[in-house]
Each structure stands twice: as C-alpha cells, then as structure tokens.
C-alpha cells in the first residue's frame, strides 16, 4: 500500500514531528510519502529525507498524485489538497487527520462527508469536538493517539552540564494560544517566593518581528532577562537533552496553553522521566489520570500553578515518583510500535 500525507507547513512543530515519529514504524508495512505546501526548514525531523516533497500549488500536488498512483491520500488541515485531488482525478481513498481544534479546521464546514472515508484524531476530546461542532458521524471519527520516539526521548545521564539551580522549561510558539505572557507572569510570581530557579523557553523561531519585540520588551520590563533563557529554535534532536537536563536539575516542564488536543511535549517530557505541570485543558485530563492528575492545575490559575510549582520543588521525592509513574504510562501507551499497530488496523479497515 502506498500512502501520501499532505500538510501545510514543513516546520519543527507538533504535526510534522508526529508524522516523523510514526514514519519509521509505518514504513515497515506501507510506503509513505509526504507533501508540504511550505518549507520552514523542518526536514530535520525526519530520519529519512526520501519521499518528502514541497508542492506549493494544487497543480504541483496534483502532478505528484498522478505520478505515484497512491492507494490513499491523508489530508491534514490543508483544504487546497481537495482541489489537487480533483485535478488529478484521484480514485483512491481519502482520509482526514485532525490534530487540533483551532480555526484551521473550519474548512471542514465546506467538505461534504462523502468526500472522505474517515477522520483520524489523537484524543477523545478532539473526537467529541468534531462530532458536535461539524456533525461528523461517530462512526467516521477514529481515535489514534500520538506516539513518541522512545529511542530519542528517554532518560539518560547529563551530569556534566546539569544547572546548579532547578530549571523550569516552557515549550511552544510565541502565540496567544500557547499563552507565553502567562508564563512570564508565572516566572515573576515564582521568583517572588524563591529566587533559586531558572527558566528555559524553547520555541518561537517562526514568530513575527512584532511578536518577538513584544516578547523581549515584556522580558525586560519584568526584569527576567537574567533568569530566562530563550532557545528560539527547538530542534527535535536537542529536546531530549533539554528534558533530561531539566529533570536532573530538579525542575520540570510547564505549559500555559489555553487548549491542548493531545499534549505532545508533555509525553516527550515524561518519556525522559522529567515531571510536568500542565493546565487541565482539552485532552490533558484524559491523559494525566489517577495520581498523575497531581501534575495538573486549573487553567490560567496562576496562584494554583505557583503553589504546585513550589510543591514540586520542595517535595522532590514525591515529584520523582510522579515522574516515574508518568514514564511507565508513556512506555505502555505511546511507543511507536503500539500506536502504529492500532493505526494500521484502523487504516486497513478503511482503505480496503
């Protein structure tokens, strides 16, 4: 079976990384190609660069489809792909993947259900949203969780460069969805309680000059420039080292997102046995269950967020136990072999 995945942006973001995480295991069973409409230097996410194409127009994408005789085309938040399918007179199966609930999926209002066989999504939260918002039938929406590359994201020794203060790391684009202003407010609040902590912010390379200038201005006004290290390009290959460095320092990974359809950075962090502190939004409560729920806080509640951060820092033994429990759950549920097995079972049922 030969499958083409179509997505807008080849960048080091969640969707690209998820495609790369699945690819090595998927390619043991099917041939996969990937078409992106814009190149934002995200090719390094893929171990194997073959079969990755930049098709900037529907015509270019249609040509690729005609040349390769795909059995299925999987479209991810890229409505222009439907024009390409029409131009190519594609007769195979069309499947949608929906990784989030942002405005980028509003195109689904214009796509009749008969144009696709199924919709794949990473969580019960997104499944429910699609069924309620777009009236997609329950039978068409299938849940396949994201997976994490456990060969890359794993605990390892970083003793030679562990900071002498606990490090709290925030990861994401510099946008209001990821809510970077709240994180800087949190930094200020936590430093008022104890000053023996440092902060990393990883991501933001694609932000506009206006947003970057605003971010740097807020950083300066809050007098955080000596405490916050900004790593604008969060290369996938560097992230395991950062997660382990943070965990070994006695710190943890934190999120201030307004919504999370899955929480990939949370799973990556736990795969490295580094604790997390995430808002109870979107899919997070369905993943951080049982004792792992201690690693959640009420969304945008900076008082609870700060209090839990202090608990993590003050009660290290308990925090390490939570990280261990999260690590075990991640290995059991989100390894590529486990997820791809589920993915292929569902995929073959739809395509055959």
UniProtKB/TrEMBL annotation:
<dbReference type="Pfam" id="PF00534">
    <property type="entry name" value="Glycos_transf_1"/>
</dbReference>
<dbReference type="Pfam" id="PF13439">
    <property type="entry name" value="Glyco_transf_4"/>
</dbReference>
<feature type="domain" description="Glycosyl transferase family 1">
    <location>
        <begin position="163"/>
        <end position="327"/>
    </location>
</feature>
<dbReference type="InterPro" id="IPR028098">
    <property type="entry name" value="Glyco_trans_4-like_N"/>
</dbReference>
<feature type="domain" description="Glycosyltransferase subfamily 4-like N-terminal">
    <location>
        <begin position="40"/>
        <end position="151"/>
    </location>
</feature>
<protein>
    <recommendedName>
        <fullName>Glycosyltransferase</fullName>
    </recommendedName>
</protein>
<keyword id="KW-0808">Transferase</keyword>
<dbReference type="GO" id="GO:0009103">
    <property type="term" value="P:lipopolysaccharide biosynthetic process"/>
</dbReference>
<dbReference type="InterPro" id="IPR001296">
    <property type="entry name" value="Glyco_trans_1"/>
</dbReference>
<dbReference type="GO" id="GO:0016757">
    <property type="term" value="F:glycosyltransferase activity"/>
</dbReference>
